[in-house]
Amino acid sequence: MKGTALTLVTVLALPVWVTAGGALDQRRPAAPGGRVTIENMTGTIKVIGWDKAEVWVKGTLAPDAELGFSGSEDRTRIEVEAMGNPMAAHSDLEVHVPAGSRVEVEGFQATISVSGVVGTVDAETVNGSITQTGAAKEVNLQSVNGTIEVSSPSGRIEVEAVNGAVTVTNASGELKASTVNGKLVVTGGSFERASLESVAGGVEFDSGLSPRATLDVETVSGGVELRLPGAIGADFSVSTFSGDIENDFGPAAVKTTRFTAQKELAFSTGGGGTRISVQTLSGAVHLRKRP
Amino acid sequence: MTCEELRDHLDDWVDGGLPAPQAREAEAHLAVCPSCRRDEDELRQLLAHAAALPRSVAPSRDLWPAIAGRIEREHAWPWRLAWGPAALAAAAALVIALATWAVLRPTTGSVHTVEIPARTGPSPVSGGSTRIDPVLLAAERDYELAANTLLAALQARRNELSPETLAIVEKNLAVIDEALAEVRRALEVDPANPGLSRMLVATHRKKLDALRRVMRLSTAL
User: Most buried by CB count within 10 Å: which residue of A3, A56, B83, B190?
Assistant: First the structure.
């Protein structure tokens, strides 16, 4: 009996290799909360959460690539391996996974989209966009050259782009987002903590904040625009070395020294509570009342 | 103990310096919180990598407590810097370690030839008089060393990467270098401004993060 079980486990863990390109249609059983790792360096990766205890790989494999499909029910591994130049081996994968999976996706010149996964989502690419939709409880997305769009996750969210815009929509929980040269836009949803950083890209925030939340924004040259409810109870701390500060909530910024153009603005509204901090070097700061 | 409290104490917990009552609370929290366990694992890995570094490439660790301490004192909201000086030093060290490994890794293939700069930006921390704090300048030297090591590694792999990728890397390094120059100019005017010091360090880290990501994923090709 023990031997049979061992054999079964061994068979289940055996990798399936699909070679010579063409259409893909491979399935393996998978645990509802298992880990699924997907690697496809060039092409597209579309991950869809579903209610079956199964991983299903569809798509098209590049002519000079192999697909490795292996692992156990708790850990499934899908890997496109190019036999020649990986940058020329364009493969398109559509992977259905149990919705509660822990999904890890890695590409290089690859566009990644993940939808319907309520577990955790980790995705990383160099050239390509990343799109995540659905109530994932933890999201970690990173792209060097490509946009990142996040919609509706609820939990811990980390998003990082270099040369691309970052858009976070209807999310909630804890957000940490940064970009070097792209715009960072956060709309809808509500946060307990949000940390938004940019080097040269502008930052726009038009979301809810819980009563004891913290919002922290920092840019070097990017402008900052916060759209907040007029009745928000918050403690504001705004500082810019050489930019301008516009404040719809009342007090004007003051110069801190006659030797530099640095301006600071600290005030509270509605008895305080939510802590909002903005710091820029030369980017303008606009505090807007939401209509 | 909440996730926030755990992150505030993670450095001490990993170092074994947390007082017993708090250590028990941290242990209990980690037992039920996968997210914090992952943070703990990452920090332990960082520290392990840092400990394994050869002395010749290790950054000047003694610089970090001063700068990180100063930054933390000036920053009202400590959650943004939940990792303490040890972790900051380890993170910088890990980047250098990864870069060194990448340089030594053999490369093959010949697809394209694209020139990327052997080092980026004007060297801000060598020569000339400056009003910028020596501690900050020393930290910048560490970051420059790490960035230039990574750039050298990318140079070595340039035949395996597409020209588009390298062009994007170059373009964004230029953006970051311009930002660094802008922050330095501001620091020359107002060298005691802690916000500017923190901004300078954060921008350096962004540069290393970007380089490290490209290097890491390119090694998977």
Answer: B83
